[in-house]
Amino acid sequence: MSVPAVPARNLLTDNPALYEARFPDPGRLAGRWVEDCLCRHGAGVRVLDMGCGTGRDAAHLHRAGRTVTGADLSEAMLAHARSHHPGPLYVHADLHGFDFGRAAFDAVVCLDSALLYCHTNAQLDAFLASCRRALVPGGLLVAEMRNGAYFLGRTDLLDTETVNRFVWQGVEHRSTTLLYVDRAAQLLRRTRVWTSDDGSPPVEQRSAWRLLFPQELRHLLAAHGFEVLELHDGPGPRTEPAWSEGDLPAATADGDRLHLVARPLTH
After folding, report:
1. Residues near 171 by Cβ (< 8 Å), separated by ≥ 6?
2. Any idea which of 15-24, 65-74, 102-111 has the lowest mean pLDDT?
3. C-alpha span between 12 and 8 (Å, rounded)
């Protein structure tokens, strides 16, 4: 008989070191991709990394010479960032609505589908209004996320369990993940069960991302006074093949990742 899983808020968010072991980025690919976007569009040095997580990308941007504020809702992530990836200022904030003052930043960065934790239209509106307020005229919003358009007619990532294994501190951890689309809510829902060989009980976690489509995202941005400079499916830090220095944006938006660079319009 299987052992019932113990519910948890988010095993990886609550254990940042485990998160970094599961999703290693020794070459700081995501941070380098962001820095390339910022340089290409001439962004200033003040950067807000919204949903900064463990702080790896924020610290890379700091080392590149930028003045970085990393913001996250998880106190565990922020504590890890301060101790393991120093340099930026790390603060507690909610992407569903934040206020660091008007024109406080030259760029707002939101990576790894963090924007898609805005599940409702009201939350998306609050996020974009907060970004608009935070950015200087000519500033940049840079985001990287799953692409809702990928799931139109495609099921290769859905309704089949995938298992990943990795060893951390001598213990093998396994995650069994199932993705499915909640069409009415326009959400990609995820159920993940964690097991390990150290005798710990299984842990189940549930999460979801808003599925945004490219034209829908363009409309939302325009409604909040943004001009879209780039909206494409790669290459990026989580595409196959991954982005490398010198790569330019594609002219398509059909792959499973979506990459956005937008600028607030001046009045």
Report:
1. 196, 197, 198
2. 15-24
3. 10
